[in-house]
Amino acid sequence: MGRTEPCQQEKDLLSEELCIFSEMLEALPEPLAVLDTGLHIICANKRFYSFFRPVPEEEQGNAFPDMTGMHRNLTEMQTLLENIVNGNTADGRLSINFGPAAAGKDILVHAQALTHPTNTKDVRNILLRIKEAATPSVSHGQGPADMNYLSLVEQGNDGIVILQDETCIFANSMFRVMTGYSPVETSGKKFTDYLPEEYKRMISKRLKKVLKDRRSPGRNNEVEIITNNGDMLQAEISFAYITYQEKPLVMLNIRDIRERKLAEAELKASREKYSTLVEESNDGIAIIHEGALKFTNRKFSELTGYSREELANRQLTDYVSEIYHRMLSGRLRKVLKDMRSLRHSNEVEFTTKSGSLLPAEIGLSFISHEGKPSVMMNVRDISERKRADAELRDSERKYSTLVEKGNDGIIIVQDDVLVFANMKFCEISGFSKEELLRRPFEDFLTADYKRVVMKRFRRSLEKNRDTPLKYEVELLSKEGVHTPAEINSSVIEHSGKPAVMAIIRDITHLKNKEKRLLELIEVLKIMESVIKSSPAVIFFWKPEDYWPVEFVSENISQFGFNAEDFISGKLQYGDIVHPSDIGRLSMETEQWTRDVENLSYEYRIITSSGEVRWVDERSVVKRDLDGNVQYVQGIVVDITERKNVKNFMHIVSGPGEIFTPVGDPGDMFYQLLEFATQTENLDSGALYLIDEATGDLNLVAHKGFSPEFIRSIRHYSSGSIHKRVMMTGYPLYTRYYELNSMIPGNKPVNERLEATAIIPVKYEEKLVAILMLASHTSFEIPFNSRSTLETIAAQAGPLIGRMREQVDVHKDMRNLRIIFETIEEMIFVIDSDGCILYINPFACKCLDYTGEEVKGTNILKLHPQNKLLEAAPVIAAMISGSLTSHSIPFEAKSKRIIPAETRCTLGQIDEKKVVICLSRIEL
Question: What is the band of 145 on the pLDDT scale with cuts at 50, 70, 90?
Answer without folding.
Answer: very low
